[in-house]
Every structure is written in C-alpha cells, then in structure tokens.
Predict the 3D structure of the following.
Amino acid sequence: MFKNKDLKSVVLALAGANGTSGNENEAALLAKSMLEEYMPAHIDTLGSVCGDTGGDGVHIMLDAHIDRIGMTVTAIDDSGFIKFARVGGMRRDIPEGWLGAVNAFANQFLPALDEIDALITRNKIFMDRAVGIGVISAEEAMQWGLTGANLRASGVASDLRKDVPYLGYEDYDFDVAIGVNGDCYDRWLVRIEEMRQSIRIVRQAIEKMPDGPVCIDNPHITPPEKTKVLKYMENLINNFIITTQGPDLPAGEAYFEAENPKGALGFFIMSNGGGVPYRVKIRAPSFVSLCAMQTLIPGHHISDVPIILGSMDFVLGECDR
C-alpha cells in the first residue's frame, strides 16, 4: 500500500495535510473539521474565567451551551468524536437531520455569545481584574513555546489552519484573531472572536457538505462493514488484521501538529515499519502553558492567580500524563 513512500508523506496524506486531502472524500473532511472546531473548550474556558472573577451566572449560562454541543455530538456516536473519526474518513455517515441541528445551534449560540460579550467584555469589574494582568510579550511567548490562542493574544499571527492547512482548511474563509498586549483581557478577546470564526467555519462546512461515501474504500486502511464481517470469512480476517496490526506503514520518522483549543497538539512518530510505532512523543500544549506560569504570576496578588490560570486554559490531566 505505502511501498516506496516515506513515513512523513504518508502521515501528512492520512491527516489530509499539505494539499493531500484527496486521500479522504470531501464529506469526511468537512465533518471532521466541523467537529474539531474550538467552541466547547473555549466556552468552558470563558465560563471558568467568569467564575474566577465573580461572574458565576455567566458561567452557568455558558455551561448550558456546552450541554447542547454535547447532545449534538453524541447524536453522531455515543462515544463522541473519538471513535467517530478514523483514518481514511468516518466510522459511519452523519445521521439524517444532524446538519440542521448543528445549524440551529449556531443560530442560537451567536446571539448568546454577543450577549455575554456585551455583558462582560466592557464590564468595569472584569476589566479591572483582567487588563494588564498576566502579561506575556510576544518574544517571551515564543521563547516558552506557547501556541494557539495564548500565543495569538500576545500579537503573534500563528494559526496552523492557515499556515499549514489540513482537513481542507485552505478552502474555508475565516480570520485569525490576534491580540496586542498578551494579558488576561486579550486572551479573553481572542477566544471570544475565535468562537465567532468557528461558527463561520461550521456554516461553510454545512453549505459544502455533499452526498456520497464517508470513508475511502481501501481494505489496507479501513475495516470492512460490520455486516460483512459477520457474514464473510475474508472480511472477518481483514477486520482482525487492521484492528490488531494497523496499516503497514514504512520505517522512518514523522512529526505532525494541528490546532487544538489549548494550542498546537503535535505527535512525533518513529516507525520500524508495520502498524505499531516504535516510539511516539506527544507535544502537549497544556504542559507548555503551565511552564510559562513562572513568567506570568510573579508580581501579582494572590487574587490574580485564578484568572491568570483560567486565561491560559490548560488541563492538568494533560500535563501530568
């Protein structure tokens, strides 16, 4: 299947990156890009920041929208996006009426986001707690290796969806939100705007969604349909080999990273050939953000620490793995 190809080109092809999105059909790429967008994580972050500054009511309002997104995602698969997406496409087609449900959520969420923006962003109490707090310059942010919204809030126009497009992002019309001062306030502003851009991307994906298959027809990569596995011995064997051994990849090294709500999530893979890598290193954005605390926190009051931590949006489970 991958004879005479290097591992890096194979990984990029399977990820739909660098113009190789033809390895998956358009429907799968569009659905994956829709499900990858930032909204749930950013909503949770903004709610936490509001809670840290005394805005518990807004936190509760935002949590309701996370529940709506959760119900929309689980309508595809009870296990959510993790098992729904697979190499080569999707586990199964999106259910009938799902695109309409996503569009309905977008229509409900944007006015709610505008309301929260008007309620909090220019609120004097919030500005006193956020403006000039937890400042990190563009130079310091790059030295620490910050990525994603935390880097963009410091004024660095870096977005992998624009710089190194994957999953068909080169075909979407959206803007990259950039901050100026690198403080808690700018990190809030960047995430507010990124959610608006996510809605913009999702709506474009809905408009472009075609009919047709949702996974490539390649027995070396994708398992056969469940009905065939239960009926035909050759399909049962094929399913067993793919499940236990994976695709037969070439030997070599490869690194790929993608935009994540927390920053750039990267994977370095070392392969001796076969379907199981010899070594994998995950570049976790939360760990990098946590390390930068020694630059952000000194000189502030203890009461400033919660909003600084919340604005950097890291997950300790990712840091402590």
Summary: Residues 184-208 form the longest helix (25 residues). Residues 18-23 have pLDDT under 50 and may be disordered. The two ends are 34 Å apart (CA to CA). Residues 137 and 154 are 6 Å apart (CA to CA).
